[in-house]
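Usage

Read records sequentially. Each one opens with the input sequence:
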Amino acid sequence: MSLRAEFIDAMSGLVSSVSIVTTDGVAGRAGATVSAMTSVAADGDAPTLLVCLHHETAAAPAILENGCFCVNILNSDQAEIANIFASRTTMLGADKFNAGPFETYETGAPSLSSALASFDCALMSEERVGTHHVIIGAVRKIAKTNGKPLLYGDRDYQALA
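and closes with the structure output:
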């Protein structure tokens, strides 16, 4: 087994929350499903978080050009939205953003109204690491609802135990 295959297999044991990352602006609207999202710091001028996006997603260059993004942590009943933004499922005759109610805040990035939490972010920095963009954002607004997070591990969605 190659080191890459071993790495992917071992990482499948990690359970993480599922989010969709969205953007809008001069480069247009785009979004993608991610499990690589984490807080960076709560201190400083603004809280910060990071997301990792494959360089071939439409969302990555759009975020870089638009200068903003929104991280929407999905509720446990939103696996279909995750699949739509991951392009595993298509909505016939419609775009991804018809998958749920979206609104905008300070940056103009679409925020999923029914998400467990949404973080409206201004782009702070970006670095290409291998095949992925590591994107750091300054949080401008937070919206939160009640519920349990949608989790992903062992190559499938998981329920909280």
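Summary fields computed downstream for this record:
- The first strand starts at residue 16 and ends at 17.
- Residues 3-11 form the longest helix (9 residues).
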